[in-house]
Design a protein that fits this description.
It is a single chain. By secondary structure, the chain is α/β, with parallel strands linked by helices. It has helices at residues 22-35, 49-59, 99-116, 139-149, and strands spanning 3-10, 42-45, 67-69, 131-137, 167-173, 179-185. The chain has a six-stranded mixed beta sheet, sandwiched between helices. It is globular and about 50 Å long. The termini are far apart.
Length: 204
């Protein structure tokens, strides 16, 4: 059965200007070491500098694996919930999002799913083989792909946080619902590099 394996990772820790820090580079390198044993076909990254730098840092451990930008992976709000769908803790977060901005973000979210959340198509030779893609992106796109894999209501992307370079793995097969293999796994990071970028009050 042909399977698409998606390895989703938030970029490494970044500074206030959105540039990867020394800590972020270490995190990305350790993620690359972890993925070195996987038959990765490609590394895709968001256009933003912190994700681009993270992708190239981890790709140093994946010789000959192509690295490319995917605009669908940019940091964006995938779905602006109605007032009835919004948990009290998120009240006010979406103030200022007009209808055009909300629609633009949702179009990006739909494009993200259409491009990556599916079983691999046939090759030029007509064969179908497993694919292994690494997506270096941001917390919200990861939350949206996870929500999609679980077939949860659109507003359930809220609160699905990812730490910097934490690993989420989802598999897609014909005729079956997606399989969430792991979410927000940081076992490749030493304790002092874990949980960065994660809301402080939610850390265990």
């Amino acid at each position: 059965m042909t399977t698409r394996h998606l390895y989703l990772a938030r970029h490494g820790a970044a500074d206030a200007f959105g540039e990867l820090t020394g800590v972020g580079r270490r995190q990305a390198g350790l993620l690359g070491e972890r993925l070195a044993g996987v038959p990765v076909d490609a590394v895709w990254h968001s256009p933003l500098p912190r994700a681009t730098a993270s992708a190239y840092e981890l790709a140093r451990h994946l010789p000959d694996v192509p690295v490319a930008e995917a605009p669908e992976l940019i940091d964006h709000v995938p779905y602006v919930p109605s007032a009835a769908e919004t948990p009290p803790s998120w009240a006010g977060f979406f103030d200022g999002y007009d209808a055009a901005e909300a629609a633009s973000g949702h179009r990006l979210a739909e494009a993200l799913v259409a491009r990556f959340a599916k079983v691999p198509g046939p090759t030029r030779e007509g064969n179908r083989t497993d694919t292994h893609d690494v997506l270096v992106t941001h917390a919200y796109p990861i939350a949206w792909l996870l929500r999609h894999a679980l077939d949860a209501p659109p507003s359930r992307w809220l609160g699905l946080n990812s730490a910097n370079t934490a690993l989420t793995v989802i598999e897609y097969r014909d005729g079956l619902p997606p399989t969430v293999v792991m979410f927000n796994d940081m076992s490749h990071l030493p304790p002092d590099l874990r949980w960065t970028g994660f809301p402080g009050g939610l850390r265990p």
